[in-house]
Specification:
330 residues, alpha/beta, Rossmann fold, 2 domains, 6-stranded parallel sheet, 11 helices, 14 strands
């Protein structure tokens, strides 16, 4: 009798453990909402995924905030994913390949390079609309591009820098990730302005949009080219790196970047970095989700939507800084 009771108890315990194990496997059908809570995927709401090429810089965190606020405001079953850094092209592609198996209704993506096009083409083949934000691609399959005209941003930066210089002066450019459309267009914008103004670009080297790399690259440029009179950096992270190299030599060289992130805004307020061409990553992501919903409702959206830029100087840096801090809850 005792043996029978023991066998029965063991059988019941085994069954309970198996059921618990099966319950644990259901986690693949949940996602994090804008508050970080677990929510069932089959909510009846439109499923919109937002994927960013990186999350290691404040710029991307602003975009994340915009996406998650849109999820909340617009009643979306939202999924947010990102590669660790924007140089991890393969990681981004892997994220997109895994995500397509979850059949989102729409995809909002901040890509890194043209290498993402083949996997994005698979979304198009499944009739999943693809909205590009921040970084445009030469791909006819996109539903729309929402972001900055990066050539214009480069031009605006170049014009501002040229005003601080004289014909015949020499400048240096810190480029981002070579081969990316964002970098190439910004640099081209500056190059065209400098050619028109008769200002020589003595050095143009890549620092991968990275602050630490920018310090080393800028130090090497200043050593080889002691007559540099101005610096353009293709993003604000590199502007901070360039500033460190310039300050170490007790030099006073105008520096202008692109993005409008808080570190640079604080630096501009202190009279260090000269200016930044501010972008609107929060709005890009928010409008990405907003326009994804319009497409899902059968509405027509423009093929390109400009998210606007603004040149930030010491005069308006404080106001812009408060705006950025409020978004980031700083």
């Amino acid at each position: 009798m005792k043996n029978r009771l023991m066998i029965t108890a063991i059988t019941l315990l085994t069954a309970m453990l198996l059921l618990a194990g099966c319950g644990g496997q259901e986690s693949s059908n949940v996602a994090s909402d804008e508050s970080g809570n677990k929510t069932e995927k089959d909510s009846g709401k439109p499923k919109v995924a937002v994927v960013l090429k990186g999350l290691d810089q404040e710029y991307f965190k602003l975009a994340e905030k915009g996406a998650k606020q849109a999820f909340k405001d617009l009643g979306v079953d939202g999924t947010f994913l990102a590669a660790t850094t924007q140089t991890e092209t393969e990681k981004l592609i892997n994220i997109l390949e895994d995500l397509i198996n979850e059949d989102p209704d729409a995809l909002v993506v901040m890509p890194s390079t043209e290498a993402a096009i083949p996997v994005l083409e698979r979304y198009r083949e499944k009739d999943i609309p693809v909205i590009l934000i921040d970084t445009d691609l030469k791909w006819d399959g996109k539903t729309t591009y929402i972001g900055t005209d990066n050539y214009t941003a480069g031009q605006e930066a170049g014009k501002f820098l040229a005003e601080k210089l004289s014909k015949g002066d020499e400048i240096a450019i810190l480029e981002g990730v070579l081969g990316t459309d964002v970098n190439e267009q910004r640099v081209k914008g500056v190059e065209d302005v400098m050619k028109e103004k008769g200002i020589k670009i003595t050095a143009s080297q890549a620092a991968d949009f990275d602050r630490v790399k920018a310090v080393t690259v800028m130090e090497n440029i200043l050593t080889a080219n002691p007559n540099i009179k101005g610096i353009f950096t293709a993003n604000d992270e590199m502007a901070i790196g360039a500033l460190k190299a310039v300050k170490a030599r007790n030099l006073n060289i105008p520096i202008i970047g692109i993005d409008g992130t808080s570190d640079v805004l604080e630096s501009i307020s202190k009279g260090e970095v000269t200016a930044s061409v501010a972008q609107e990553p929060y709005d890009m992501a928010y409008k990405g989700v907003e326009n994804a919903l319009k497409v899902l409702k059968g509405e027509t959206v423009e093929k390109s939507i400009d998210s606007s830029i603004e040149v930030i100087t010491k005069e308006n840096a404080g106001e812009k800084l408060e705006e950025v801090k409020s978004i980031l809850d700083k």
